[in-house]
Here is the input.
Amino acid sequence: MANYLEKEMHTLPVKSNVKPGDIKSQVPLSPPNEGEDMDHIFDQFKRIIIPGMTHWQHPKFFAYFPGNSSYPSVLAEMLTATLAAQCMLWDTSPSAAELEERMMEWLRQMIHLPDDFVGTIQNSASSSTLVAILSAREKFSNFEVNKKGLYAQRKLRVYACEHIHSSIEKAVRIAGLGDENFVPIKSDEHFSLIPSELDNAIQADIEKGYLPICVVSAFGTTSSTAIDPIDAVSDICEKHGLWHHVDAAYSGTALILEKFRTLANGYQRADSLVFNPHKWMFTNFDCSAYFVRDKKTLLRTFTILPEYLKTKTESPVTNYNEWGIQLARRFRALKLWFVIRTFGVDGIRQRIEEHLSYAKWLTAEIKAHPQFELIVEPLFNLVCFRFNPANMSETALNELNADLIERLNASGKLYMTHTKLGGKYTLRMVIGQTYVQKHHVEEAWETIKVMAERLV
Ligand SMILES: *Cc1c(COP(=O)(O)O)cnc(C)c1O
Here is the structure.
């Protein structure tokens, strides 16, 4: 593992270039009847499995959002796997329950959420958002959906900017509200929700007899890390009495820095917020921090207490199975404890600042280059740009950039993904990998320029 991170990984193509079926064809159709030797298994792991891996811990992984790990996180994860405890009740491992409580208090302080928020670790932001929407559904149906199902209900409506993450629509669907009751709200030129559009949509729905229950606002969208006007959304939610959930899955880590708390203003008044230490905070997947203000509603939404789960030790202890969808849970707080203590809050802050400074450098390079175009001014460490040599139609530019990214990724030298912003095929370069240094970004920029020039 150490050798992989220190040496081997750096010699491999960042994005796996195997063809569909390449891996499956090397794995026998049926399981072995007799046990095999670990040396042989490990040998095959290196020979068969590693070539089919995309190296998310590679410093030139600039795709999607990072799924960061770090040495302390790996060590804690090994211990978690060794202990392999099921952490659903306080009784099933008091350390897991109490460390989770404390770690969520640490995280709450780190991102300056008010004291009346309580937190729990979910497996993903998608689950956290589902938990928020289910809680809103129960709160505003007076817990009738839990009891009778949705049949007796008015149409429950959920609102978010048209650029919100797909996990919100998925949560609306799983909560049984129906795709048609997710209401996408128009955005402005910064790809942020327009508050008056939101207010009008809610008002119109109320007049039609619908029951608005929840607004989800984004602190850092996936396409371009745009920020919704969270303060204005909080006002609108307070005015209509709706649940306000903030999706800060990626950019939430930046709330550790004061300047970003100003940009997110209003998040302190939300009903719930999710951010993923498993993206930008050096803690390997899965570790999604879900904060919620109304603990009573949360517990009433999820608690079912069969005889076999009753324990003598009831409150004041926390039984986290009542805080979400999973019953059995992994001991995820341990890796947070290892990571936060090893880095220190200042260390985390410093690393984030470094990432932001690399992104700033790249942004300046792009702006200064006559053949590259910055698509939006980056708020964080996601740089959105495209290659734009003179005199090409939009369609041709889209094709050119799609071609460029494919060649870049096939080269194995770096890995980036794309999005579409205002119809423009946009290259997304996220500079937030645990091990990324300035020279990696400089080398990547060189590679991009050289390959782009070759295309014209
Ligand atoms: C990554 C992301 C999600 C989904 O996170 P998971 O933990 O993979 O479910 C949701 N919203 C935003 C803004 C994201 O960036």
Summary: The longest helix spans residues 333-368.
